[in-house]
């Protein structure tokens, strides 16, 4: 019996791969053989479902690559001693999972940069982390403001509504830069419907602000608040923006069960 185990395992693996190949061949044949007026004619929804099925079940398309990316980058948290820098392990793990999903979907152009804002910390602490996942380095670690209606010292209320003056949780992609009323600024695209997808409409951007500084944090025990933007120190805003602009992932974290259970990118 012991002698037979290895061949049996190999046979199971071979059959599994064969089944996947047959299923995928069938899907591809159907998609390539559309016939108007027949059951082979594919609707838009059917095309979407087929594409999603192929990407999720085909081990030769992205899955292993992105899974390898996720698992290989998990060690960065301990390597950089990010716990000593105050970053929640949950914030890092969720941020990495979301970036992995964006890479799988082909949406993140700047894949080696992950920025995390950890709103489980009070505003007097440095809670913005810009991490280079390729070089295993913490590029920036500094203060960041939350919306004035999100809370006082700590942010605990969030909204996607215009004029709410609250921060929005979740995943963003950085866009292009521009010069506005706050000077050199960076547009953000909210990626999660109903959670932060009004970011562009609300003009939620990364910009520098005089009310975000070490002196205020030390003297008052908190920093100033924004109208919902992740405002950062005037002394660092330009190098931070230049490093994260144009297609990197920004994750704004808070230990909210409601968010974690409803996030499209984490579920």
Rounded radius of gyration (Å): 22 Å
Count of strand segments = 8
Query: Given the C-alpha coordinates, what overall shape results?
Result: globular
| Number of structurally distinct domains | 2
CATH T-level fold name of the largest domain: L,D-transpeptidase catalytic domain-like
* Amino-to-carboxy terminus distance: 42 Å
CATH superfamily of the largest domain: L,D-transpeptidase catalytic domain-like
Structural class: alpha+beta
Question: What is the level-2 CATH architecture name of the largest domain?
Answer: Beta Barrel
Main CATH class of the largest domain: Mainly Beta
SSE topology string? HHHHHEEEEEHEHEHEH
- What proportion of the residues is helical, as a percent range? 25-40%
Mean pLDDT: 84
DSSP helical segment count: 9
| Strand adjacency order, main sheet | 3-2-1-8-4-5-6-7
**Main sheet: strands, sense, barrel:** 8 strands, mixed
Uncertain spans: 1-10, 12-17, 19-42, 51-66
> In percent, how much strand structure appears in the residues?
15-25%
Could you walk me through the main structural features you see in this protein, from its secondary elements to its overall organization?
By secondary structure, the chain is of the alpha+beta class. The longest helix has 31 residues, at 2-32. α1 (2-32) packs antiparallel against α2. α7 (214-220) links the parallel β6 and β7 (232-233). It has nine helices and eight strands. The protein folds into two domains: 2-57, no CATH class; 64-262, L,D-transpeptidase catalytic domain-like (Beta Barrel), CATH 2.40.440.10. It is globular and about 45 Å long. It has an eight-stranded mixed beta sheet with strand order 3-2-1-8-4-5-6-7.
């Amino acid at each position: 019996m012991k002698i037979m185990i290895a061949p049996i395992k190999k046979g199971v693996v071979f059959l599994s791969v064969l089944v996947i190949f047959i299923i995928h061949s069938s899907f591809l044949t159907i998609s390539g053989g559309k016939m108007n007026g027949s059951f082979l004619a594919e609707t838009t929804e059917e095309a979407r479902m087929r594409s999603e099925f192929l990407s999720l079940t085909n081990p030769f398309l992205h899955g292993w690559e992105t899974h390898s990316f996720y698992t290989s980058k998990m060690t960065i948290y301990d390597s950089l001693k990010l716990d000593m820098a105050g970053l929640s392990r949950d914030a890092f793990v969720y941020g990495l999972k979301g970036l992995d999903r964006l890479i799988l979907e082909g949406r993140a152009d700047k894949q080696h940069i992950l920025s995390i804002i950890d709103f489980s910390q009070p505003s007097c602490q440095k809670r913005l982390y810009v991490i280079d996942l390729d070089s295993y380095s913490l590029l920036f670690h500094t203060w960041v403001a939350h919306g004035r209606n999100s809370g006082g010292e700590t942010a605990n209320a969030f909204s996607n509504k215009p004029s709410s003056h609250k921060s929005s949780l979740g995943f963003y992609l950085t866009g292009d830069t521009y010069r506005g009323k706050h000077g050199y600024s960076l547009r953000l695209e909210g990626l999660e419907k109903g959670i932060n997808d009004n970011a562009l409409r609300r003009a939620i951007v990364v910009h520098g602000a005089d009310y975000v500084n070490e002196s205020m944090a030390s003297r008052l025990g908190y920093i100033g608040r924004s109208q919902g933007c992740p405002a950062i120190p005037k002394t660092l805003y330009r190098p931070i923006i230049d490093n994260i602009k144009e297609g990197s992932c920004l994750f704004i974290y808070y230990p909210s069960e409601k968010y974690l259970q409803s996030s499209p990118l984490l579920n």
